[in-house]
């Protein structure tokens, strides 16, 4: 059933079926999410700036999720010798980079009115900046080697080593005393965020992930065509 | 027993090769000293300022100067076929990588230790900070050797982008820098930070033979 995740031709067929409904759903979700964000309540301390959260938090989650997907696909590709996983690695690395950059920029715009500074050398901020540099190195490595097998396997090994950063980002707010607030949505007990803010946040997260999926589908299809020497 | 003999012969060869090319090491150390000089000239000779920033500056310059000769880590052995011959002689690539890391640690990184007290005097560091610098550099340079092995083996077939190997080393050495510089104002956390550094070193000793051997196999297959 899930063979489209490791087989290029199955993936092409699946993507052709799913693409139009997915695009419509994404547009609808985005409109709904923006409406919900518009009508969501203001924070009693932060005022209007709390609405940066609806861009900041989804892009941060998706930056981490993209790297986690790349890590899983590198393990699959190196262990079971499935070349499609390397195609996915190459295709979704820029998406993760863009989400990380969006997270950094929106966080810095949120930090200026709230903390009084654009940037602090805080554990969470620094580790996310390192994640952005790792994404950039992956993109540069994609342009480096002539031999295609060497290129993709080297990138897979690099991704595996770089995945050490993921738990550091996740737990940095618990391990160190940071200015960044600790996790409030993904706690194991009940989330400490109010339901009226949680609803638009989840809709925005779904919208962001759908738009990421759409760009990923387009890039993966282009990459398959390049591998087949059609482009 | 015969594997021990092979290991000894391999190390002996490394030492001999290093001895014939000892000017390379001295130019590394010279680069380190010169960069320290340039830094001090750029900052001016305010003793208090130099003392506060000394350890961080020394560590980052050590990092930069030990990434200088990284391209030579595997390249010569790869080009003249020593790697493949040694592998045919019955040593796995992982073992070769471990021996390479060991010899790089002994021959390239340890000589920097001798230069640390002199540089410490330049920066007017107190004695206990020089001692901490010694301790952290012995552990941290092992990590640097492992990272050098990883990035050098990744870039064996890389003929266009020369600075990416240094970028990889700098990227993964950030935790080393954080913990080794932070050890000076740790206070009671001294032992835990040392343990953390040793833990990172053990992780990299575990990772680097596997990943370097995979990269070397790839490069040999496709060269």
Could you characterize what this model shows?
The complex is a heterodimer of chains A (231) and B (223). By secondary structure, chain A is mostly helical. Chain A has one domain. Helix content of chain A is 74%, strand content 0%. Chain A has seven helices and no strands. The model of chain A has no long low-confidence stretch (mean pLDDT 87). Chain B has 223 residues and is mostly helical. Helices cover 82% and strands 0% of the residues of chain B. Chain B is built from ten helices and no strands. In chain B, helix 2 crosses helix 6 (93-122), helix 3 runs parallel beside helix 7 and helix 7 packs antiparallel against helix 9. The radius of gyration of chain B is 18 Å and the shape is globular. The model of chain B has no long low-confidence stretch (mean pLDDT 87). Chains A and B meet through helix 4 and helix 5 of A and helix 8 and helix 10 of B.
List the main descriptive attributes of the protein structure presented here.
heterodimer, A: 231 residues, mainly alpha, 7 helices, 74% helix, globular, B: 223 residues, 10 helices
- Helical content of chain B stands at over 70%
- Determine the most extensive contact between two protein chains: A-B, 21 and 21 residues
Ends distance of chain A: 30 Å
Uncertain regions spanning at least 5 consecutive residues of chain B: none
Number of E-type strands of chain A: 0
Spans of chain A with pLDDT under 50 lasting ≥5 residues? none
The largest β sheet of chain B comes out as:
none
């Amino acid at each position: 059933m899930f063979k489209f995740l490791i087989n290029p031709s199955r993936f092409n067929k699946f993507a052709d079926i799913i693409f139009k409904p997915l695009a419509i759903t994404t547009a609808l979700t985005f409109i709904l999410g923006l409406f919900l964000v518009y009508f969501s309540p203001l924070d009693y301390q932060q005022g209007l700036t709390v609405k940066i959260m609806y861009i900041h938090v989804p892009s941060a989650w998706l930056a981490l999720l993209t790297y986690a997907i790349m890590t899983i696909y590198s393990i699959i590709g190196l262990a079971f010798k499935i070349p499609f996983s390397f195609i996915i690695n190459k295709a979704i690395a820029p998406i993760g980079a863009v989400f990380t950059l969006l997270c950094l920029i929106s966080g810095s715009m949120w930090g200026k009115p709230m903390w009084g500074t654009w940037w602090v050398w805080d554990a969470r901020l620094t580790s996310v900046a390192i994640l952005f540099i790792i994404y950039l190195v992956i993109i540069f490595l994609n342009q480096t080697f002539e031999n295609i097998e060497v290129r993709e396997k080297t990138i897979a090994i690099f991704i595996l080593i770089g995945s050490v950063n993921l738990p550091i980002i996740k737990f940095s707010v618990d391990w160190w005393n940071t200015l960044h607030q600790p996790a409030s949505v993904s706690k194991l007990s009940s989330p400490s965020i109010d339901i009226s803010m949680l609803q638009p946040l989840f809709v925005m997260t779904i919208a962001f992930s759908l738009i990421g999926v759409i760009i990923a589908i387009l890039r993966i299809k282009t990459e398959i065509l390049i591998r087949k020497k059609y482009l | 027993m015969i594997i021990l003999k092979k290991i000894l012969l391999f190390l002996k060869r490394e030492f001999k090769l290093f001895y014939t090319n000892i000017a390379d090491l001295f130019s590394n150390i010279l680069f380190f000293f010169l960069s320290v000089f340039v830094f001090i000239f750029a900052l001016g000779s305010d003793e208090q300022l130099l003392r506060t920033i000394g350890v961080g500056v020394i560590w980052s310059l050590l990092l930069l100067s030990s990434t200088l000769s990284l391209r030579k880590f595997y390249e010569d052995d790869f080009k003249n076929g020593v790697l493949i011959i040694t592998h045919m002689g019955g040593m796995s690539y992982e073992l070769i990588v471990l021996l390479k890391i060991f010899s790089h640690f002994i021959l390239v990184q340890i000589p920097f230790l001798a230069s640390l007290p002199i540089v410490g005097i330049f920066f007017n560091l107190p004695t206990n900070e020089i001692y901490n610098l010694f301790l952290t550099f012995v552990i941290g340079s092992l990590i640097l050797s492992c990272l050098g092995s990883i990035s050098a083996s990744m870039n064996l077939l890389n003929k266009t982008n020369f600075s990416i190997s240094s970028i990889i080393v700098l990227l993964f050495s950030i935790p080393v820098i954080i913990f080794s510089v932070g050890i000076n104002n740790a206070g009671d956390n001294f032992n835990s930070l040392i343990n953390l550094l040793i833990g990172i070193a053990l992780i990299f000793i575990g990772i680097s033979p596997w990943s370097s051997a995979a990269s070397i196999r790839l490069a040999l297959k496709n060269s």
